[in-house]
Design brief:
The structure is a homodimer. Chain A is α/β, with parallel strands linked by helices. Chain A folds into two domains: about 120 residues, NAD(P)-binding Rossmann-like Domain (Rossmann fold, 3-Layer(aba) Sandwich); about 240 residues, 2-Layer Sandwich (Dihydrodipicolinate Reductase, domain 2). Chain A has 14 helices and 18 strands. Chain A starts with a strand and ends with a helix. The C terminus of chain A is likely disordered. β12 of chain A pairs antiparallel with β12 of chain B, so a sheet runs across the interface.
Chain lengths: ~400, ~400
């Protein structure tokens, strides 16, 4: 039956404080209490009694009475050390640190097997949306074709303001930062790293493979120019930063890139700091999950549900790891994209497109639309003055042979 | 580890045929095979070999090799007998029969305890949306305040056509029937019984109480008149048939009624046969789940996920039954509603409203807007010529004393 858990917290920011409030001041159904909180900054005024706090991580990690470590710090490297030690010491872990998880997921999986203690991390992917739990528990068969959506609340907030309130990119970013929806260093968000980390985690639970963040191409929204916005508005499109992964020809593809979205696309109505995840299966058709993806409460609610799950000895089973049997990740895909650049750029030409559709040039700027290899887009995305946005309803054409054939070739 | 399940099907309509296809013709991850299918009509041509079929239910129920009964028939009474016998014979059950479940849920819960075999039924509530699994597994703490949404695909299809294509109610209903989104006898849908059955099931998994369908008030869309549609259009509203349940003052309230919905409400963008469920918690804020709610595939995908879950011995734990401790259901609530009626109606007057806001009368028709008791609305809804639609952002004012006080009164 249900255990009363003793928690050791690392970090006491908004999420930690919200947790304290819910666990200690309301009589919630979650049977857990905070024993100790490890923080970095000494002599800071804090809203709860001082004897909750410690500055030594060992006071939590070496305390045999603490069942669960709740890791809520920013530093991915320190976080991984905490998780590792917690497992070694026989403690379960709840974390929402997507960077740490994306970089170490395979190792964290193996550590869980080794020490037979769970690490769960719903808060790491799309805030309050219970997508990992659904991938683990509900979509438990290999009939999922794709997972895609708006995985980053900050950029979605910025893009919403840019389109709905005709704000400039800079103003929208500033507002997002003031509201706490964007970090003071927004590069992880606007360059698409944050949604990529989440995508890497989601891929493991969707397709059963571990991918390294550096394998996955991320194109951000930071290079979107006024010309691009004008193009979008003239065509009645919004722009959303979309993370996606899908299976084709026995390979798994995944990338993060801005995309034009028609107003009739359900993702168009996902506004401000909301996130959305769409799961598509052969039989299940489209499922859309919408919930807040940025801010402390959405993450806090996911952390709370994870703690609650641990009181029933919940763990991820990573079932698809065993089902898929050697599916590989690939970037060998052609996508339909809009590419804008300065007219004097000599690295982008019609010949670069697999299938060129249209182009336009005026007043020193130029754009081209057509099918192009993802890896070429990635190279372009690093050039100054180049804007890249996927076409609405873009087709993604796998350039890999069907796996069965590929296998025959290898064994021939 | 994962078992290969042997299934006995009852019924072989679209869902059954889809299941056969997925299990036998694709190599899906679901480890299950159909052993026998019990059908009613003899000598009907069927798309798979004749030796799959039987006309005797005992050939499935008495076969010790069959692990799981998949019940997919229409008849609620016969379905309950099948479920009961299957459990007695030590078989797990998957069903999507919402009427049967809503009418017998408490008994089915007890039978599961008695025979220690699971009955799972994700397909019964909102087609492909995995709402029960989320309520059971993820929202496992008592912080859910409300659950509401569009629980019926047929009426949502009809209402979408009425508003978007300015079709008459009758034409829209006809199209829905032709497309298979509405039954030949649509009364269960348009009078709000079907969403009520689903709500009754959802209430058990959300708030941990068993409610009988007859306790829950359902007001349908079948009495909506041209005047009502005109009022909606003039005010820029859609109409959606909303099922909802919420907790206030220690009581649980729940009902089904049409409601005006502003275009900015996320439910407004849930169109055609799609369903939506919104879960709101103190800490988790709003979560929206969208997916297809009518048609054979959405139900089939839920049935498939349930079968897959059984291969891991999944069962509903009904955890909230033990957490809530005696919360009661109540209809003692005041809602804000629009009521339209023929001008010669003498049963509805301003004095009936707790708080009258406005009214209008012309050419023999009249409407009034204000706060009114739910039970009064129910009585009116049965009168000919009366249309009832809840106000957008309607407040629901509990008329029950706070439970603690009520308890004191009882024990005094």
């Amino acid at each position: 039956m249900r255990k009363k858990l003793k928690l050791g917290l690392f970090g006491f920011g908004c999420v930690g404080q919200g947790l304290y409030h819910v666990l200690h001041e309301t009589h919630g159904g979650v049977k857990a209490e905070i024993s100790k909180i490890c923080v970095k900054t000494k002599n800071k005024e804090r809203p709860i009694p001082a004897d909750f706090f410690t500055y030594s991580k060992d006071e939590i990690l070496d305390n045999p009475e603490i069942d669960v470590v709740v890791e809520l710090i920013d530093d991915a490297k320190a976080a991984f050390e905490i998780v590792k030690t917690a497992l070694e010491k026989g403690k379960a872990v709840v974390t929402a640190n997507k960077k740490m998880l994306a970089e170490h997921l395979e190792e964290i999986y193996q550590l869980q097997q080794k020490y037979n203690k769970p690490v769960i991390y719903e808060g790491a992917v799309c805030g309050s949306i219970p997508i990992l739990r659904n991938l683990e528990e509900y979509y438990d068969n290999d009939l999922i074709n794709s997972i895609e959506g708006i995985f980053n609340g900050s950029t979605n907030y910025i893009l919403t303001k840019v389109f709905e309130e005709k704000k400039s990119y800079t103003d929208a970013l500033k507002t997002a930062q003031e509201l706490g929806f964007a970090e003071s260093d927004p590069s992880l968000d606007v360059e698409g790293y944050d949604p990529k980390f989440k995508l890497v985690i989601a891929i493991a639970h969707t397709f059963g493979i571990f991918v390294k963040p550096e394998q996955v191409i991320n194109i951000g929204i930071d290079r979107i120019s006024d010309l691009d916005l004008k193009f979008a508005r003239e065509n009645g499109y919004f722009i959303k930063l979309i993370a996606r992964a899908f299976k084709a020809n026995g390979k798994v593809y995944g990338f993060v890139a801005p995309q034009f979205v028609e107003t009739t696309n359900p993702l168009a109505s996902v506004r401000n700091e909301y996130n959305a995840v769409q799961v598509q299966g052969a039989f299940a058709e489209k499922q859309l999950f919408i919930g807040k993806g940025a801010g402390s409460y959405p993450t806090g609610s996911a952390v709370l549900s994870d703690i609650s799950a641990l009181s029933y000895d919940y763990c991820y089973e990573y079932k698809k790891l065993h089902q898929e049997g050697g599916v590989e990740f690939s970037n060998n895909v052609v996508v339909e994209a809009y590419v804008s650049f300065d007219q004097d750029t000599d690295t982008i030409s019609i010949q670069d497109f697999e299938n060129f559709q249209s182009g336009y040039a005026a007043s020193g700027k130029q754009y081209m639309v057509g099918q192009v290899k993802l890896e070429k887009l990635q190279a372009w995305s690093k050039q100054k003055g180049v804007g890249i946005i996927l076409a609405p309803n873009s087709q993604f054409i796998s350039q890999d042979a069907v796996q069965e054939n590929a296998y025959e070739l290898r064994t021939a």
